[in-house]
Amino acid sequence: MKKQGSDSNPAPVLPALPEPLKDLKIKYTKIFINNEWHDSVSGKKFEVFNPANEEKICEVEEGDKADVDKAVKAARKAFELGSPWRTMDASERGRLLNKLADLVERDRLILATMEAIDGGKLFSTAYLMDLGACIKTLRYCAGWADKIHGRTVPMDGNFFTFTRHEPIGVCGQIIPWNFPLVMFIWKIAPALCCGNTVVVKPAEQTPLTALYMGSLIKEAGFPPGVVNIVPGFGPTAGAAISHHMDVDKVAFTGSTEVGKLIKEAAGKSNLKRVTLELGGKSPNIIFADADLDTAVEFAHIGLFYHQGQCCIAGSRIFVEEPVYDEFVRRSIERAKNYTLGNPLLPGVQQGPQIDKEQFQKILELIESGKKEGAKLECGGGPWGDKGYFIQPTVFSDVTDDMRIAKEEIFGPVQQIMKFKTIDEVIKRANNTTYGLAAAVFTKDIDKALTFAAALQAGTVWVNCYSAMSAQCPFGGFKMSGNGREMGEYGIHEYTEVKTVTIKIPQKNS
Amino acid sequence: LEENMVPPSGRGAGGGLALLSQAAEPVLPSLAVSINTALLYSLQIFINNEWHDAVSKKTFPSINPATGEVICQVAEGDKADVDKAVKAAKAAFQLGSPWRRMDASHRGKLLNRLADLIERDRAYLAALETLDNGKPYSISYLVDLDMVVKCLRYFAGWSDKFHGKTIPLDGDFFCYTRHEPVGVCGQIIPWNFPLLMQAWKLGPALATGNVVVMKVAEQTPLSALYVANLIKEAGFPPGVVNIIPGYGPTAGAAISSHMDVDKVAFTGSTEVGHLIQKAAAESNLKRVTLELGGKSPNIIMSDADMDWAVDQAHFALFFNQGQCCCAGSRTYVQEDIYHEFVERSVEKAKSRVVGNPFDFKTEQGPQVDEEQFKKILGYISTGKREGAKLLCGGNPAADRGYFIQPTVFGDVQDNMTIAREEIFGPVMQILKFKTIEEVIERANDSKYGLAAAVFTKDLDKANYVSHGLRAGTVWINCYDVFGAQAPFGGYKASGNGRELGEYGLEAYVEVKNVTIKIPQKNS
């Protein structure tokens, strides 16, 4: 048995990393409705900043309720019985999604550069990871388009019964700023493969790649009105979507706080279907029998990846007593060796946080950690004289009642706790309102499978962290969300099941 | 509605419902007009992504059925070559091989790439198909190639979606299934849809991670060998697909009785299907799927839309020169419309354009070879002798090549040879019936059970007849509607197993159950 990465068993080959584009032009800054570009009804625009240097990149049309209304009308029209989109072969929807994947692949460098500048994301990560995930997700969902099977049902009596998996209709989709393009694709790809129409609101911090996608969606040949993109703010455009009486479903990725508002809005308006992918405070449990190098590395990446701005961040690391000190020592060493800076430059390992608000919130939580008695092992403050950079920060001796052990920090701040027994750590790991992800590191098959069952989380990783791909469902237990995205499970969130029963003269098996 | 296999001339005759879907009617590509049939690629045996002469050094001629002339010589594989191919396939399937370690999604990517390459070379492949098989170029290009590309793309999508399960086993256990590839799959394909049958076989086998030794029909090896180049170009690792042109009794038999072939899939005659099943039983009990002959009933109720029914019944039988396993070769027409139906069917058959398959106006080309040609003419004379009424056709249609006139028999009785045996030619049998119960019984009174159809506007009749027919596919108010999404295969002696759709994947996996003892089970 050879490990992946050894000579005769190479890891999958990533494409070569080019240099980021030097003269990126921002061409698309308007609202995308009916495959056309529109000014906002109010005439308002908002500024988009580069978080690495706090400079303005451009201004974008600011959509609000009036623009959402326009977009929903277009989406509704595109969804009418007999429309080109409704009468299209399912395989043709798949072909269009594959075409869109081809176009994203063609423009990979443009999109990755834009994502790095707008989102403060390392260019290498944007190009290799984010864009790779986008392309694969589009192709994955493309394949599903003509494989979403209804059933024939052996109903009692003289009836012939079958189910149709129909698209839900107009889907509002509100996406976050941490993975702007990946989240855009995670939302539109399953919705479109099932035949829905969508109104997407990208985050106000990071609207650029989503708007660029508008141009590709048109180029791929999706009919007008199938995808509509309204950049804007949550309290205006986002609220308009979630309150809208003609939106059949809303899917949201973001904070738990806003997730509650969305569900409430759905309840108050038309009982639209709601799926939510929210925050987390995911436990990562390291047993003394684990391969310590592997565990330290995964625990580090599991927290620090993309400046800690991941809903799945492994932000509560529980380490078994005998290896606790050594684990902390190696984790500090790993966190100290960091190059911060311009995310477009090669060699840079950590970029800025997304904006001033997040930056300040993280620093405030770091202060609370110090005040509440956690031991600050490294980092703990801002970095550089401009941009929203924060030093990689490690806290040890963290206890469960501290704010940094309970609240989602969404920054490069690692909490390491100690545990003694299995029962204890299961209880402590589950003692949270969240339940998005969890991990356990051990070589013991019994422990591994015990934790796989006991942890209250939508995803459990064993001896790895952040291992995600389009085939695997993803979503939260408890207040980390409702429903699942990706995998076959994620597809079903975008269909209504219709039971059709026909009286027949005589039933035969 | 009237999708896919409907030839261009049949389009747009769909009646009211078709209007609704007009907006989304896929636009067919226009026919490529510059036809190139130069054979500028290797006509050898394809093993390990390389070209080999036959071990015996033998070759055989491939013949143009429109002229009876030899097109070229092709390497003739037999047992020795099958052994080489199976060895290569087995090596490609070893634990730790590039193919076994490949991400499932990457297998899908390779299949999509193969579809892209076939699309790129669509005109050339269509021309090869017509040259070698005799089917009209317009059909090769618009129908066969379209379905080939769609089939490969469909299975590309499945590669990372054919899920195992986790299972709530009683006791303190964790239990799950893995859908593992079967291994070395022998695939023996026919001459009536050479490229399409190749895609039907390769798509599910490769999506699920198997390796393949394919024998292509000796009548039509050319297009499959060209596709071998594309398989290599797409980037499939060596040994994953191996293609052997050759004959059934030698190469085909070697595959089906091979001790190292884990599964055999065959499309062809019921007679040979028996031999394959027997060979599997006598060798290593390899898994067997068979897609065999048919004598499919097509039932026209008196309330059906007459224009549409005549049109579809004609298409159901005459499509592809009648060389379809699912041909609607027993057309049962209800008494009160029988005469009109017969009259109009004869009219339609008489107007069918037979001729040079490269002529865009041609609807019917030659039969595939002399053997088939003679066999069909034999059936026609048997039909006359047994008392069926020959209403049109009945003779060869040209003085060279294997052309047969579109032929219609009326007053056919169930016990006549032409109502019981598969003719596989442009010969239509029309029978009369009175009641639903009677026609279901008569329709099912056949050793075959591949396909069936009913034409009626009555919902109850449609449901009753479709549920009562013993056939793997039942079409209602349509015929020969195929799509990669819908499973296809036979009841009774028409075959074992299903191809296409999710069901089609089942034949290409072994289900492995893994059970692990755990300290404590929790729901």
Automatic annotation (TrEMBL), chain A:
Matching Pfam families: Aldedh
Enzyme Commission number, as recorded: 1.2.1.36
Superkingdom: Eukaryota
A GO term, aspect molecular function: retinal dehydrogenase (NAD+) activity
Reactions performed catalytically: all-trans-retinal + NAD(+) + H2O = all-trans-retinoate + NADH + 2 H(+)
InterPro entries assigned to the protein according to its UniProt record, in alphabetical order: Ald_DH/histidinol_DH, Ald_DH_C, Ald_DH_CS_CYS, Ald_DH_CS_GLU, Ald_DH_N, Aldehyde_DH_dom
Any one Gene Ontology BP term: lipid metabolic process
Known pathway: Cofactor metabolism; retinol metabolism
Keywords, ordered alphabetically: Lipid metabolism, NAD, Oxidoreductase
Domain Aldehyde dehydrogenase: 37-500
Active site, renumbered: 277
Record-stated family: Belongs to the aldehyde dehydrogenase family.
Quaternary organization: Homotetramer.
Record's protein name: retinal dehydrogenase
Organism: Buteo japonicus
Taxonomic lineage from the root: Eukaryota, Metazoa, Chordata, Craniata, Vertebrata
TrEMBL record, chain B:
Pfam families noted in UniProt: Aldedh (PF00171)
N-terminal signal peptide: none
Major enzyme class: oxidoreductase
This protein's UniProt keywords: NAD, Oxidoreductase
Residue span, Aldehyde dehydrogenase domain: 51-514
GO molecular function annotation: aldehyde dehydrogenase (NAD+) activity
EC assignment: 1.2.1.3
InterPro entries reported in the protein's UniProt record: Ald_DH/histidinol_DH (IPR016161), Ald_DH_C (IPR016163), Ald_DH_CS_CYS (IPR016160), Ald_DH_CS_GLU (IPR029510), Ald_DH_N (IPR016162), Aldehyde_DH_dom (IPR015590)
Active-site positions on this chain: 291
Family: Belongs to the aldehyde dehydrogenase family.
Protein name: aldehyde dehydrogenase (NAD(+))
